[in-house]
Design brief:
Elements (H helix, E strand, L loop, with lengths): L8 H22 L2 E3 H10 L12 H11 L7 H12 L3 H10 L12 H33 L6 E6 L4 H14 L3 E4 L27 H18 L4 E5 L5 H10 L4 E3 L2 H8 L3 H18 L2 E3 L5 H4 L6 H17 L7 E2 L1 E3 L9 H15 L6 E3 L9 H18 L3 E3 L12 H17 L3 H4 L7 H23 L1 H6 L19 E3 L7 H10 L7 E2 L5 E2 L1
Parallel strand pairs: 2-3, 2-10, 3-4, 4-5, 5-6, 6-7, 8-9, 9-10
Antiparallel strand pairs: 1-11, 12-13
Helix pairs in contact: 1-13, 1-18, 2-3, 2-9, 3-5, 4-6, 6-20, 7-8, 7-16, 9-11, 10-11, 11-20, 13-18, 14-15, 14-18, 15-16
Length: 534
């Protein structure tokens, strides 16, 4: 399949160079900033969990305590470690005492910086060793049980009740699914805390909590033993708690995380500064945990035309690739997103879909590309919908996609029933089996319709990326260059949670992750508008 479309390698190099500079600009901007979500994530990795008497998560209690005293610019770990050294207590007990009102972290005597850093390394290594153990356990299970062939069959459960999700998730695995995605309850991405414990009510999905992760992981391990293959668990670490949920997933051995700041900016109106800062740390965690991320470029085509805006999907894939590399995430864990959203009534729409999918495959050869099904142009005609999904499946196996989110013939009518999901799985299995090696047998006609379409999209993506490089990503987002959606640099949800790092700032987990991932320390500076110098 390599290089079946004759794409200009110089154009691909130009796109990558522009995307790399865009990503470096973002990285310089975020280097001097942290967020409340990152600081809560540090506390969770230190072992702080649970809630206070009012059911407020303890990480939130401690962060609010430090914010009220104007102390958070030094980093949450700095203050908690000082208390641990002074009182000889674990981080969990420190948090419980803060919640009870018996400890004011601002009154704790400061220890020598060398002692703090030594304790920080000890705590960080202990927390990250738990993550590493989960990664090794996953590798052992896959080696023993095996796994499904790519494209992985990815299906959704979304009942609101985690225990019903278990029933449906196991059912889907028995039907042939390789990845079970538990959709989050509607609006969870906009709340600035992570709910606690097992939940049995949700709207449009089930709350992402650490206990729910634990319950679902146990269930999929059980059914994996039954069916004789490893079943992957997916959830969502986008939103205002992006890094926290990444950490919880790493601690509970999730395998796939939807992790894309651009999605949150464009479709949830989360402040661009906040979520790009959060994304960098969350991707470091996902990288170390061996978690495949999924990005959300497929959503661009729900608000923009799939023919006219195809280049924005490719441009965003280039940017997401470079941002991920700066967080140490290897290509093998980059589930870059795209979608089959061209109007099915358009002549030669299938050829354009093949062009986009094949182009993405060739440009990102090591990425397990996540291919999204038809949704925008689905109707109440379930028979036509089933055929649309079948053509989507054919494009996927022809072009060697990595993750196939299965379409449902009742997509436009209601939340799919269990039998709808079984039909979707059977549809994909039939086509994947019958056309498994089709891509190895076909060549694309030089200068034919498919090749010309791919070249056109690539050229427009290069032009867009070089313009974004010139003006900066934040200005591009303000101008509505992605998904035809405009967002403000100082607007949206969560800006209040962005802080400048103080001179004493310390995050032992970022330092340890950078060491383990082989990343350099950040350098450079930027002005407040995100036009960068460094």
């Amino acid at each position: 399949m390599d290089h079946k479309l004759r794409l200009d390698p110089e154009q691909i190099d130009r796109a990558r160079r522009a995307a790399a500079e865009i990503a470096r600009g973002v990285d310089r901007f975020i280097s001097s900033r942290t967020t409340v979500a990152i600081e809560r994530t540090v506390l969770r990795l230190m072992g702080i969990d649970g809630v206070d008497s009012q059911y407020i998560p303890l990480p939130n209690v401690v962060i609010d305590h430090l914010l009220d005293r104007g102390l958070l610019e030094s980093g949450a770990a700095t203050w908690v470690i000082h208390a641990m050294l002074h009182l000889g207590l674990p981080a969990q007990t420190i948090a419980e005492q803060v919640a009870a009102g018996s400890l004011d972290l601002g009154n704790v005597p400061w220890a020598d910086r060398r002692e703090v850093e030594a304790k920080g390394r000890e705590v960080a290594r202990k927390g990250l060793d738990r993550v590493r153990a989960n990664r090794l356990h996953r590798d052992q299970l896959i080696k023993r049980l095996g796994e499904g062939k790519k494209p992985y069959l990815y299906v959704i459960v979304a009942t609101g009740d985690i225990y019903e999700d278990v029933v449906q998730g196991k059912s889907a695995a028995r039907q042939g699914a390789d990845i079970i995605a538990v959709i989050r309850s509607t609006g969870q991405s906009l709340i600035d805390y992570v709910p606690y414990g097992a939940t049995r009510e949700g709207y449009g999905g089930t709350y992402a909590t650490q206990e729910n992760f634990r319950i679902m992981r146990k269930a999929l391990d059980e059914v994996g033993e039954e069916v004789g293959r490893y079943i992957r668990l997916c959830n969502y670490c986008s939103g205002l708690c992006m890094p926290e949920i990444a950490a919880m997933g790493a601690l509970e051995r999730l395998d796939v995380m939807l992790n894309d700041a651009l999605y949150g900016i464009l479709f949830r109106d989360i402040n661009m500064q906040r979520t790009l800062i959060d994304q960098a740390f969350s991707r470091m965690i996902n990288s170390y945990a061996g978690i495949m991320i999924n990005t959300g470029e497929d959503n661009y085509l729900t608000t923009a035309d799939a023919v006219e805006a195809a280049h924005t999907v490719l441009a965003s894939q280039f940017i997401n690739e470079q941002l991920a590399l700066l967080s140490g995430l290897p290509p093998e864990q980059m589930g870059l997103g795209h979608a089959c959203e061209i109007n099915p009534d358009l002549e030669d729409g299938l050829l354009m879909e093949i062009a986009q999918a094949q182009m993405s495959r060739q440009i990102f050869p090591d990425a397990p590309l996540k291919y999204m099904p038809p949704t925008k142009h689905m109707t109440g005609n379930i028979f036509k919908g089933h055929i649309q999904d079948a053509m989507f499946n054919l494009v996927s196996i022809l072009t060697g996609q990595g993750v196939q989110l299965l379409g449902m013939m009742t997509e436009a009518m209601h939340t799919p029933h269990i039998h709808d999901r079984q039909l979707a799985i059977e549809n994909a299995q039939y086509i994947f089996n019958n056309a498994r090696h089709l891509g190895e047998e076909l060549l694309f006609r030089p200068d034919g319709r498919i090749e010309k379409r791919a070249r056109h999209v690539l050229q427009k993506a290069v032009e867009m990326l070089e313009e974004v490089e010139r003006i900066g990503l934040f200005t591009a987002l303000e101008n509505g260059m992605l998904a035809d959606v405009k967002r403000s640099f100082t607007g949206g949800k969560g800006l209040h949670g962005v802080l400048d790092k103080g001179i004493e700032y310390y995050n032992p987990f970022e330092e340890e992750l950078r060491n383990r991932l082989g990343l350099r320390q950040r350098e450079g500076s930027s002005d407040e508008r995100g036009l960068y110098t460094g």
